[in-house]
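Late entry, written up from scratch paper. The run itself happened at the end of the previous shift, but nothing got recorded in the book at the time, so transcribing now.
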Amino acid sequence: MPMIDQATIDRIMDAAQIVDVVSEFVTLRRRGVNYIGLCPFHNEKTPSFSVSPSKGVCKCFSCGKGGNVVHFIMEHEQLSYYEALKWLAKKYGIEVKERELSNEEKQAQSVRESLFLVNDFANNYFQDILHNHRDGQAIGMSYFRQRGFRDDIIKKFQLGFSTESRDALFQEAKKKGFNTDYLVKTGLCYTRDDGQVRDRFWGRVMFPVHTLSGKVVAFGGRVLNTADKKVAKYVNSPESEIYHKSRELYGIYFAKQAIVKQDKCFLVEGYTDVISMHQAGVENVVASSGTSLTSGQIRMIHRFTNNITVLYDGDMAGIKASIRGIDMLLEEGMNIKVMLLPDGDDPDSFARKHNATEFQEYIAAHEVDFIRFKTNLLMTDAGSDPYKRAALITDIVKSIAVIPEAIVRSEYIKECSQMLHVEERILVSEVAKLKKEKEEAQAKSAQRQNAAGTSAGIDSPQVSIREANNEPEPNNMDPGTENEAYYAALAEGHEADSSSLKVDASKQNANSTEISQQVQSNPRERAFNPQFASLNPLYLKERLIVQQLIRHGEKVMFIDEETKKEITVTEYVASDLEVDEISLSTPLFAEVLQELELHVEEAGFTAERYFVNHANPAMSRLAADLINEKYQLSKYHSKTQTVVSDTDRLTDILVYLMVDYKHTIIEMELKNMLNQLRQPEVMNDPEKCLEVMSRYKELMEIKQRMAKHLGDRVIG
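Output as recorded:
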């Protein structure tokens, strides 16, 4: 693979701004000193993707993906490190000097890279034929001009032409040294039964399909000679390693900035609809390319806007067929409107008759809410037939039931009740019934997946460990009560035996790993689980630390005498853990600390308010629990001292909790060492035995110093 020198890499990294790059793919809104938006790597309705311009990093606190600007492009565009650097260099106009690939290096390139190269060659080839070949000028260009496309629009969308020759592209590609296998894999060519290779798109005008980043991923070709009825009007690239039809939208590369600017996306059916609307000045438009919308396409639109208007021509049969797929848009929580164009017009012809202002004004005057549109449409068909009206009501209720926001559902129910002349309570009941049925179906599906996973030796991420093993319900002691009992014992001066937590210290790592994997596999479903307390001896100690972080994370703990910098509670905890190379073992707690590190320096940030109102219900619930939990005081302190507030003694509390936490870790390690000394492989090896004993002595000294520091203090 070509090499890029370090000086060029440094120039690229200096020029690339994380907010600027991420904004090309995600609609970002400022929140303090950072930015937030919907994660581009997984499906979510509430923004959890945070971008920090000061640190030059981004991170999704739900799925965990992120990194610096290069990592983001690598993940989003599925590029190698080298390709991501080239992408950034092109964006910022930085020249990248590299040597030509040798034949061996070309062969070593990945299949994915090769397929993109082949598509890029084909795209340039089709454009060259259109502009410079006799047939391209006479046939292809004539067709585009007949459609009213200007030359600048033709170049913008990189339109092309393929001659009537059945293998012209294949022959040209072979001359350029391209592998036949890659030509077939992209779908540009196919192999006949007799072994001959033929072009797929001969005799057609060409429409390249671009990814969000502008890479050509596929083609659509329209035949111009309609004499042969057996020839399909449109031919599209087949699915390949780089092209998945359900994940692409025609025109999204050219529309994304306009969609963000207008905060609206127009959805049409075909290539020419998109192009004509662009030419008319309406650029926030994409096409589903004649197929029903898929969840992947919907998520792509949702990254840039919550508002979508579907444009229909007057074909009622087509409208009725397509509206069935719009329920998925409702399910995503999007605001959907529908507009019927005048009889005889489609978006292409209508756009050619009007400029951008006229087009926008017409849409604003005629677009209607989807539910209202669907209700009116079906009511016309149902007439006074009671059976058809009942079916209509059922259909409408199904659409309303998928809407995630309860308030929006309620408003639709009220409106439809009036339109359909049905009692509101009946619609409410039917919606609730459908939602319950859906939840039950999802639960059954999860159980089936779990059963299948168990039979294969794999735990389902949707089912808890207890459920997967058919274990009885654990002792559901209130975590706060268990917490208080344990630490009250410590405060009284009793030895805190970690065995009281019902877990062998030697098994802690395995159990923690098991729990972590379970939780991380489904981060949006994380919930406060008392089972952590029994499986992880560190859980309760970590919970107390996180309690202070949520209550006081943004507060100044002390001022660094050397740097005069104010050190917050968050910074103190994070640095104290980092010094000893310790990380919180409970995934949800670790996530709290990570988010605090990212947000704590924002102006006006309050940890308590931030987490109580957090989009992740598990995190919100945790915050609410921890805010309401009280500290326990030893009897000695209760009798002899005045109780002061957490804020007044914040430093003492935190220092104590951190030392106590590390003290517990050392205790666990000491128990592990004692277990090691009992193992034959250690007992019979003098060197190993001496090594373990030496380390044991060292840790015992540290433990004793910690124990002196802990003393008899106020604890949680």
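The chain is about 55% helix and 10% strand.
(Scratch paper discarded after transcription.)
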